[in-house]
Amino acid sequence: FTCLVIGNLGLIIVSRSLSHGVFDLVRKPNQAQWWMLGGTGIALAAVLYAPGLQRVFHFLPIHADDFVLPIIAGITAIAWFELVKYAFSKWGSSISNPPRGVQVTRP
């Protein structure tokens, strides 16, 4: 659950722009982003450490070293998305206009 939440937060930040890098996006002022990150962080901490919420969700408290895998997974997801954005920018294409030879299926 923690891995899913941290990974999704990272992907939300990265997907704000297809032309700017993650560090540019974090530095750009966006009050809604910080409210979302803060609120999600507080909610995650409450679910993981508040005894009443732990019982509702059937969670056990996790230790600090248990955060290593979710953080690595989140960083990996961000790095992958950044590589995809870089590849599309390097080819001079966009997601809606992929480079020649790349198949994109649309619903």
Q: Can you offer a commentary on this structure?
A:
The structure is a single chain. This protein is mostly helical and about 110 residues long. About 65% of the residues lie in helices and about 0% in strands. The longest helix has 23 residues, at about 70-90. The two termini are about 30 Å apart. The relative contact order is 0.16. The model has no long low-confidence stretch (mean pLDDT about 80).
Throw out a few tags for this protein:
107 residues, 5 helices, mainly alpha, single chain
Topology (elements, then pairings):
Elements: H1 2-14, H2 22-27, H3 31-49, H4 51-57, H5 68-90
Beta strand count: 0
Radius of gyration: 17 Å
Between the first and last Cα atoms, what is the distance in angstroms? Answer: 29 Å
Mean pLDDT: 80
Order of H and E elements:
HHHHH
Can you count the helices? Answer: 5
Strand content: under 5%
Oligomer: single chain
Q: Indicate the overall shape.
A: elongated
